[in-house]
Design a protein that fits this description.
- By secondary structure, this protein is an alpha/beta fold.
- The chain has a single domain (2-161), classed as Rossmann fold.
- 33% of the residues lie in helices and 20% in strands.
- It has helices at 15-27, 46-57, 67-74, 91-100, 139-150; strands at 2-6, 31-35, 77-81, 107-109, 115-117, 123-129, 156-161.
- The strands form two sheets. A five-stranded parallel beta sheet has the order 2-1-3-6-7, sandwiched between helices. A two-stranded antiparallel sheet has the order 4-5.
- Strand 6, helix 5 and strand 7 form a beta-alpha-beta unit.
- The relative contact order is 0.19.
- Flavin mononucleotide binds at residues 8, 10, 14-16, 83-87, 129-132, 164-165.
- Residues 8, 10, 14-16, 83-87, 129-132, 164-165 line the site of flavin mononucleotide.
């Protein structure tokens, strides 16, 4: 199953959403969409970190706190869609990744301390639209690419349209 992580803040008006929907239609893919604007996810705070550490230490991986992490872990292919905001992406996407980036679910370490990715997806596509023109690296994509590699997803693609507000 393809998991679409939709971080399109402007929802129906979003051109980024339009861009990934065109791709899904062209490729006739079955997919499920996670609308981040509809989720009630919060940035990690000290209580959440304490709880998470306790659950991981006790191997209580079936706790609902880890539902988003497992959904990400099990997807065969992942699409992340986020407009280009302030040289990267909306903060809501970072909050989502804070929920997904869980030790022993999406990454772990070997005895030698090497990072091992645990996500099952073979590919991650990153869709964005940009008001101006990129003048250097796409920092939103580069960040997500690095994180995907940490989760063991080494095949990533950057699909974007730029200059849309000019
Ligand atoms: C809060 C905010 C920050 C933005 N930051 C940038 C930026 O750093 N560089 C840029 O070229 N455009 C920027 N834009 C313009 C958006 O990238 C552009 O309008 C994009 O197409 C919005 O995507 P959407 O139609 O999916 O909402 C910003 C827009 C907003 C609302």
């Amino acid at each position: 199953m393809v998991l679409v992580v939709d971080c399109c803040i402007r929802e129906e008006e979003s051109r980024t959403r339009k861009l990934y929907l065109e791709y899904l239609k062209e490729n006739n893919l079955e997919y499920e969409v996670l609308y981040l604007t509809k989720l009630n996810i919060k940035p990690l705070d000290k209580e959440m970190i304490k709880k998470r550490d306790m659950l991981v230490a006790n191997k209580e991986y079936d706790n609902p706190m880890f539902d988003l992490a497992w959904q990400f872990n099990k997807a065969d292919k992942i699409i992340v869609a986020a407009p280009y905001y302030d040289l990267s992406f909306p903060s809501l996407l970072k909050v989502y990744f804070e929920n997904v980036s869980v030790l022993n679910i999406n990454f772990t370490y070997s005895n030698k301390g090497e990072l091992i990715g645990l996500a099952h997806a073979k590919e991650l596509l990153y869709f964005s639209t940009i008001g101006g023109y990129l003048n250097g690296p796409h920092l939103g994509y580069e960040y997500v690419k690095a994180l995907a590699e940490m989760f063991g997803i080494n095949n990533t693609k950057n699909i974007y349209k730029e200059g849309l507000d000019i």
